[in-house]
Design brief:
The protein has 264 residues and is α/β, with parallel strands linked by helices. It has ten helices and ten strands. The strands form two sheets. Strands 3, 4, 5, 6, 7, 8, 9 and 10 form an eight-stranded mixed sheet that branches. It has a two-stranded antiparallel sheet with strand order 1-2. Helix 1 packs across helix 8 and helix 6 packs antiparallel against helix 10.
């Protein structure tokens, strides 16, 4: 328990500081913006359809604003918050999107001010209990709360097997804590509000081999392994893929989205 501060006869507890921001992507923000897959418009459409109103949405941990911009097609104002300024520097401007460098746990938004609170591929980095409290504070009663994540990519054939082996065997030990929540579709992140049925939505891309390797280079585990022991495993993956995947050829890659919804 935190030590109290005595003011007169009242003992006021010291605020417990937020855990340090786990910044895994600022150093590769430009690469992240270039190579991360893009959310489908169908995701923003589904969130808007289930939102009770469309005055304001809050996208916490927005990264470079991929989902924020899609939401702006439906909402009059989108608050796009991200603790990494480098990520925001790579964000796409939009007249209805207000970017701010701020943590998800302390948004600075007014009470009951948003109709939708969403975190996409970000909630596993949050101080979860504090984020839930902040969502409860800023979301209007009846508003929609949403978590979105995508885990292991699906690619057919031997190329897909190679990438899966790299994910599991080569960089598996270098994923930071929290990755397990992505792999289980955020099912173990509990919140106190009743669930809302979520649609089944896939994220898809038609990528060349170089685009795929650019994406793999943005994995936090790839970055960490490269920092600690070098790029040997990543380079070997590229060589193996080059032997079976011609330059310029595009292949379909799919990420089933895990979408969890609740009614505030």
């Amino acid at each position: 328990m935190a030590v109290g501060i005595v003011r007169g006869r009242v003992r006021v507890p010291r605020p417990v500081p937020l855990k340090p921001f786990a910044d895994h992507f600022s150093s590769i923000a430009a690469r992240y913006a270039a190579y991360r897959p893009r959310y489908p418009q169908a995701l923003a459409d589904a969130l808007a359809e289930r939102s009770p109103a469309r005055d304001a949405a809050w996208d916490a941990g927005c990264g470079n604003g991929q989902l924020s911009v899609l939401l702006a097609a439906h909402f009059a104002h989108v608050y796009a918050h991200e603790p990494s300024q480098a990520q925001l520097d790579a964000a796409t401007p939009h007249p209805r999107v207000e970017y701010k460098c701020a943590p998800a746990e302390t948004s600075g938004l007014p009470d009951a001010s948003v109709d939708l609170a969403v975190a996409a591929q970000a909630a596993h980095w949050f101080d979860w209990s504090r984020y839930v409290a902040e969502v409860g504070r800023v979301t209007r009663p009846g508003g929609l709360v949403a978590l979105v994540s995508y885990g292991i990519m699906l690619l057919d054939g031997e190329a897909g097997e190679l990438v899966a082996r790299y994910y599991r065997d080569d960089v598996g030990a270098y994923w930071p804590p929290g990755r397990e929540h992505v792999e289980d579709g955020y099912r173990n992140l509990a919140w106190p509000w009743p669930a809302v049925e979520a649609p089944a939505i896939d994220m898809r891309a038609e990528w060349t081999r170089d685009e795929l390797m650019g994406y793999v280079a943005t994995w936090s585990a790839t970055v960490k392994r490269a920092e600690l022991v070098g790029t040997g495993a990543y380079d070997a993956l590229g060589e193996k893929l080059a032997a079976m995947w011609p330059d310029g050829e595009r292949r379909t890659i799919r990420w089933p989205l895990a979408v969890r919804l609740a009614r505030r």
